[in-house]
Automatic annotation (TrEMBL):
The chain holds residues 1 to 115 of 139 of the full protein. It comes from Faecalicatena fissicatena. Residues 7-114 form the HIT domain. This is HIT family protein. Signal peptide: none annotated. A motif (Histidine triad motif) lies at residues 99-103.
Amino acid sequence: MRDDNCIFCKIANGEIPSATIYEDDDFRAILDLGPASKGHALLLPKEHYADLYALPDETAAKVLPTAKKIVSRMKDVLGCDGYNLVQNNGECAGQTVFHFHLHMIPRYKDDEVGL
Ligand code: 5GP
Ligand code: ZN
């Protein structure tokens, strides 16, 4: 599945270059263009699903293990003190790009990230 008007489809499938920190057959993880903290990344499925409701269970089941692998590695690379995983569904919940994505936000002691 793919949406020709979706920027995250193009990024996830490598048609637009991005700062990729992880890639496998199903997902790409990229650094966020407007990071809430150093190392803020987004996990994108390569297939287009607008939000969590549209995400097939099979893909959903891979999201957390994949995020776990990435943040476990990144916490050592970044030296952060914690991590928030955030996932917005719907405009009122803060979703601005309608291609499912999981925010992986490193946290640092005394940072002032407001979620
Ligand atoms: P949402 O608000 O939908 O949960 O998150 C969308 C996120 O995507 C935002 O944090 C925003 O900074 C990021 N973003 C939007 N457009 C781009 C882009 O073209 N490239 C990258 N790397 N991040 C983007
Ligand atoms: Zn898409």
